[in-house]
Amino acid sequence: MGKIYSITSESVTEGHPDKVCDKISDAILDSLIKQDPNSRVAVETLVTTGTVHVSGEVTTTSYVDVQKIARETLKDIGYTNPKFGIDAHDAGVWISIHGQSPDISQGVTEGKGDDKDQGAGDQGMMYGYASDETEELMPLPILLAHKLTMRLAYVRREGLIKDIGPDGKSQVTVKYEDDKPIKVTDVVIAQQHLEIVDETELRAAITEHVINPICGDLIDESTNLHINATGRFVVGGPDGDTGLTGRKIIVDTYGGVGRHGGGAFSGKDPSKVDRSAAYMCRYVAKNIVAAGLAKRCEVQLSYAIGVAQPTNVNVQCFGTNTVDEEKISEAVKSVFDLRPKAIIETLQLKRPIFYKTAAYGHFGRNDPDFTWEKTDKADILKQKVSQ
């Protein structure tokens, strides 16, 4: 028997308070860059019982009705019943947004024409990861966790399970042998519901309509299912837990597999390398794995504020690489332009595409707008390392 271990990852629905904040922040961002693609945006949201607080720094030529966007986002998520902790129509919306610091702006302003020496919007390190254990080249635990929360939202919207709310969470533990996933040992689901719901019936419905369709052959009679393990989940949403933008960075990325630089994504325009460079790291790592140069790959980039070239480019393959890591690193530097403006152009990030990234993960999604999921550089990387 080979090496055996387990990995756990979690996800949350778009109705989780932190994700409500991420979606409001990214809805504001999308609205701004739709009108002015060069908008500089750093918007933070806080939600609690019956209220939404939006603050941050914005430099733009466009105008958005922040209060209207906040309410539309709450409605889109499904918060139209005050019994679930906040209501799109009656919530109080507080706004405190001001201009970006000129000290930051002077180091980030783009050059003219083909000049790509736009400086990074901040210092920091960013990570990207890919693994060949799934078709999406993502770790299986986070992929399953996201699919479960997406399914929770689906059964709520379609009415397959009645009287459940927008707030929900999942957690999946996957058993590995010789670095290959072999079964799901534990599934945890927390699903908000109205007082009238019978917990026994809810557990049966979630097992039938959510867990079984997603986990399929990976579960059996020995798999532990924990559904609303406290016995009830009535008080939820912003009423049960204050939400903040950027508090689900592990949910947003790889579920704890690989490292994280600490920077959040939502509410930030692509001049912020916290977001754009993390997307580029995923793009690089995924192409390395797609090229067959490694089974698992983690890419780190780091930047200094106002400086275009990264201060570090590091590729780790955890012993799964088929060619020398130094060759892979040199190929990466040759194939990918890692300056902030070039990243924005390569991944076409000045588009209003960010709202849909704000829940169910920024990576591993089959969506043409998620340009960092393309594997169009795999063949070029293979050619470079063979030279």
Summarize the helices and strands and which ones pair or pack.
Layout: E1 4-12, H1 17-35, E2 40-48, E3 51-59, H2 66-77, E4 92-98, H3 102-108, E5 124-131, H4 140-157, E6 164-177, E7 180-193, H5 199-215, E8 224-227, H6 237-240, E9 243-244, H7 249-252, H8 273-290, E10 296-303, E11 312-316, H9 325-335, H10 340-346, H11 378-386
Parallel strand pairs: 3-4, 7-8
Antiparallel strand pairs: 1-6, 2-3, 2-9, 5-10, 6-7, 10-11
Quick recap of the structure?
With 387 residues, the protein is of the alpha+beta class.
Give the overall silhouette: flat
Reported for the largest beta sheet, the result is:
4 strands, mixed
Strand segment count: 11
Report the portion of residues in β strands.
15-25%
**SSE topology string:** EHEEHEHEHEEHEHEHHEEHHH
Stretches where pLDDT is under 50 for at least 5 consecutive residues are 103-107
Separation of the first and last Cα atoms: 39 Å
**Nearest-angstrom radius of gyration?**
21 Å
Helix content: 25-40%
